[in-house]
Write a structure and sequence with these properties.
The complex is a heterodimer. By secondary structure, chain A is an alpha/beta fold. Among the domains of chain A are: 72 residues; 71 residues, no CATH class. Helices cover 36% and strands 24% of the residues of chain A. Chain A is built from 19 helices and 20 strands. Chain A has a 6-stranded mixed sheet, sandwiched between helices. In chain A, strands 16-17-18-13-19-20 form a 6-stranded mixed sheet, with helices on both faces. In chain A, a hairpin with a 2-residue loop joins strand 4 and strand 5. In chain A, helix 7 packs parallel to helix 19. The two termini of chain A are 23 Å apart. The model of chain A has no long low-confidence stretch (mean pLDDT 88). Chain B is built from 14 helices and no strands. Chain B is an all-alpha fold. Chain B is globular and about 85 Å long. The longest helix of chain B is centred in the first third of the chain and has 36 residues. Chain B folds into 2 domains: 72 residues, no CATH class; 223 residues, MetI-like (MetI-like fold), CATH 1.10.3720.10. Classes of the chains: A alpha/beta, B mainly alpha. The interface between A and B is medium-sized, with 36 and 25 residues.
């Protein structure tokens, strides 16, 4: 007898159809993975089970949870279920907790609400569950506020809230997408343990096929609001009967072809970073003592040759983005020098940096946040052109934009559109077009594909490889995703607590990591090949 | 927490000193000799010079400022030219009317605005919201003296529940005095409540879209509980900011309402002092109001820290 049974579920918001004929079951103690790209309806399925849909949404079909008809239940019945028998964990740990309430209050609140327990008793139980999720009271007292915790710790609090009353079903919607791989592995372990301890059913929603494969007994693959394939994880992924399943699996393991570009042969390195450090003023503990500075980047040296592709990998907070900002001359190092094409860029006035800025461009992680929504693509992509010595005329400018768009696979007609008219992948193409319009020698890409779906991600990686090939652009990829490093980089640098702890050929470092930090990253990184092999053994 | 509070207090104190310098300087620059004004048109130059010496007007500017500022600290504001009584007495009488009036109006405004804001935000876009915000629009648009006249007509002229105007003084009994402040307080509160309700509504709507509201709902709390326990406190910061501004306004900007109800408040005093060029009174009241505004802002800063733990820093 299944714990959760979804039969022929359809959902529409206003006139837009979101879900069509969804079928899904979860049994006690079972982990079911719900996989799909953004907009496929994964989260909406979860919110329908919780009945936390937007006001205009209309659901048809049947959802049975533990014998209760969910779609027919009253709001009071749903309140009794939510947080007691069904828990839910969300994607964004940084914003999922109320900033003005202590973690103790937030965990105890649900306990008090459902069990009518007194304050002291609820706090005692909150203490226990927080301890269970890895936040022992000695280090994390109940009186902590969310802003005093890191992202991984906050996600643990969210899990504690969801699991405080030992729910029969836990719905986890991209629970680790915002975390680095080491934290991701820890959180996934925790979820797995909670499942086996309490025979809890887990509906794990993710766009990451490797993560779901590692975790799930069964898979359901969604596309455009419909189930394309469902079944045992090992069988589904080894047979890959449905073309879309195959497409997803291939895209997640995609490595772009990168024949060696023609190196100019000049011995002069493109970028040299020598002994660079960056201190931030620390928090003042006493009025009378100077604050201890925080060393974000500590004595880092590296070089990038023309047309070389280097990946800087490390966990969140290791200082890799700070280093990137200094290389881009957006932040000043407190120690060391940075030379670009032989010229020092540290300590130079803005006007002297123009040639360097022209030859050095950046692609950011978030294709949604990095464009002004009120400007047309022509203006957005043409932005770096003000760095040129000679300002192009209007017609010439349009031509340059059209050319850049063509190079990233967009058409000249896209010039007169606004950013919101593009999908996430297309927007990332736009930001690449913007980066290459001045014909730079170096592009710094800060997590350029982590916000993208796997198929789009494969396309963008191909584009990066192609531009490297065609234009001889060197890359510095900043990422915590080792598959990007493996796919794109000639050389890998591993950063840990502000220092470079390991460097070498990409395959060398990723296959035989020597430093502890690199080993931790490699061990935690989800890998679809390995995960499928393991599942095959488990499931016969 | 203490560091935050200490910083705020120091900033407030510095602002106060700076403000006092500005007020003093402006009064110095203003044309008109206080001694000549006091003695009238027929005074001789000798008489004026004698009074100037007596008033210390011939001592150097810095000394005069220090003397004046020192007086302020010991609540000695000097004497009014026109009333010939210490300014502090005039002010004390008027504050006894204006402060309770402002407080009652502020309380009324909050009591009306917060529930209306919550009601509207929780029914965003539906009939109840449209109706409430329409009323709020009206409340902002209609001047408060019109409300005052309507209130007088309804409650004083027609129903005879409260007096139409005047203030019997606190000596006449607390209830009698309060009754005469009730209508002006309502007239003052309505437009303020309308503004506050709109602020509360938009702050709440923003908060209700936050992820943590969904987390709270997923805990099983009913919508109303989420609204009051999780959303409201997060929406308080803009509401507190507006409340602080409104209190400052209510303390001094009530001159029209005071005139409509014949109330002897600060607003009327400052108006009279200006028309009679009673500079000492003007200067004192301006300083008093500046102090009040700075103190209110300090209180608002403190309340921010109470509402939002992120502003307190690490304990």
């Amino acid at each position: 007898m299944s714990l959760l049974e979804i039969e022929n579920l359809s959902l529409a918001i206003g006139a837009t159809s979101i879900l069509k004929g969804i079928e899904l079951t979860v049994s006690p103690g079972e982990v079911v993975g719900l996989v799909g790209e953004s907009g496929s309806g994964k989260s909406m399925t979860a919110l329908t089970i919780m009945r936390l849909l937007p006001r205009l949404a209309r659901a048809d079909g049947r959802i049975t949870f533990d014998g209760i008809d969910i779609l027919g239940a009253t709001e009071d019945q749903m309140c009794a279920l939510r947080g007691d028998d069904i828990g839910m964990v969300f994607q964004e740990p940084m914003t999922a907790l109320n900033p003005v309430k202590t973690i103790g209050e937030q965990v105890a609140e649900g306990i008090r609400w459902h069990t009518r327990a007194g304050r002291a008793e609820a706090e005692e139980r909150a203490r226990k569950i927080l301890d269970r999720v890895g936040l022992p009271e000695a280090k994390f007292p109940l009186s902590r506020y969310p802003h005093e915790l890191s992202g991984g710790q906050r996600q643990r609090v969210v899990i504690a809230i969801a699991c405080a009353l030992k729910p029969k079903l836990l719905i986890a919607d991209e629970p680790t997408t915002a975390l680095d791989v080491v934290l991701q592995a820890q959180i996934l372990d925790l979820l797995r343990d909670l499942v086996s301890e309490n025979r809890m059913g887990l509906l794990l929603i993710s766009h990451d096929l490797a993560v779901v494969t590692e975790m799930a007994d069964r898979l359901t693959i969604l596309r455009r609001g419909e189930v394309t394939e469902a079944g045992d994880t090992a069988r589904t992924l080894s047979e890959q009967q449905h073309p879309y399943t195959r497409e997803l699996a291939l895209a997640s393991m995609h490595v772009p072809a990168r024949p060696k570009p023609h190196l100019a042969g000049s011995a002069k390195p493109l970028l040299e970073v020598e002994g660079v450090g960056r201190d931030y003023p620390g928090r003042r503990i006493s009025l009378f003592r100077p604050a201890q500075p925080i060393r974000a980047v500590d004595d880092v040296s590296l070089t990038i040759e023309p047309a070389q592709s280097v990946a800087l990998v490390g966990r969140s907070g290791c200082g890799k983005s700070t280093l990137a900002r200094m290389i881009l001359a957006l932040d000043k190092p407190t120690a060391g020098t940075i030379r670009f094409r032989g010229d020092a860029i540290t300590g130079k006035p803005e006007s002297a940096l123009r040639p360097a800025r022209r030859d050095m461009q950046v692609v950011f992680q978030d294709p949604y946040g990095s464009f002004d929504p009120r400007q047309k693509v022509e203006k957005l992509v043409a932005e770096p052109l003000h760095l040129l010595e000679k300002q192009p005329a209007q017609a010439e400018r349009r031509e340059m934009v059209a050319h850049a768009l063509h190079e990233v696979g967009l058409g000249p007609r896209d010039m007169d559109k606004y950013p919101h008219e593009f999908s996430g992948g297309q927007r990332q193409r736009l930001s690449i077009a913007r980066a290459i319009i001045t014909r730079p020698k170096l592009v710094v890409a800060d997590e350029p594909v982590s916000a993208l779906d796997v198929s789009i991600r494969a396309q963008i990686l191909d584009l990066f490889a192609e531009l490297n090939q065609k234009l001889g652009i060197a890359y510095l990829f900043i990422t915590h995703d080792l598959t990007v490093a493996r796919a794109m980089a000639d050389e890998v640098l591993v950063m840990h607590e502000g220092k470079i702890v390991e460097r070498g050929r990409a395959a060398e470092v990723l296959d035989h990591p020597r430093s502890e930090a690199a080993q931790a990253l490699v061990a935690a990184a989800p890998d679809l090949h390995r995960a499928i092999a393991r599942k095959m053994q488990e499931q016969g | 927490m203490t560091a935050y509070l200490l910083k705020r207090i120091i900033i407030a104190a510095l602002t106060l000193v700076l403000a006092s310098m500005v007020v003093f300087a402006v009064m110095e620059i203003l044309p008109g000799d206080p001694a000549r004004l006091m003695l009238g048109l027929n005074a001789s130059a000798d008489q004026i010079e004698m009074l100037r010496n007596q008033m210390g007007l011939n001592t150097p500017l810095v000394l005069r400022y220090l003397h004046w500022a020192g007086g302020l600290l010991s609540l000695d504001f000097g004497r009014s030219y026109t009333y010939s009584v210490p300014v502090i007495e005039l002010v004390r009488e008027r504050i006894a009317v204006s402060l309770p009036l402002a407080l009652i109006a502020l309380a009324l405004s909050t009591i009306i605005a917060v529930p209306v804001g919550v009601f509207s935000a929780s029914r965003q876009g539906r009939a109840g919201d449209t109706l409430a915000m329409g009323a709020a629009q009206l409340g902002v648009a209609v001047p408060n003296f019109w409300f005052a006249l309507m209130l007088i007509y309804l409650f004083a002229v027609w129903l005879h529940l409260v007096p139409a105007g005047g203030f019997p003084g606190w000596g006449a009994g607390i209830w009698t005095a309060l009754k005469s402040l009730l209508l002006p307080a309502i007239a003052l509160a309505l437009p303020q409540a309308a503004i506050l309700a709109r602020v509360a509504r938009s702050a709440l709507i923003e908060v209700l879209n936050e992820d943590y509201i969904r987390t709270a709902r997923a805990k099983g709390l009913p919508y109303r509980a989420v609204l009051w326990r999780h959303a409201l406190r997060n929406a308080m910061i803009p509401v507190l900011t507006i409340l602080g501004l409104q209190f400052a306004f209510l303390l001094a900007g009530t001159i029209i309402i005071e005139n409509v109800f014949y109330l002897p408040g600060l607003g009327r005093l400052i108006f009279q002092a200006i028309t009679q060029r009673d500079l000492i009174v003007v200067e004192s009241i301006v300083m008093l109001l500046v102090t009040a505004v700075i103190l209110i802002n300090l209180l608002v800063d403190f309340s921010y820290a109470i509402v939002d733990p992120r502003l307190r820093g690490r304990q």
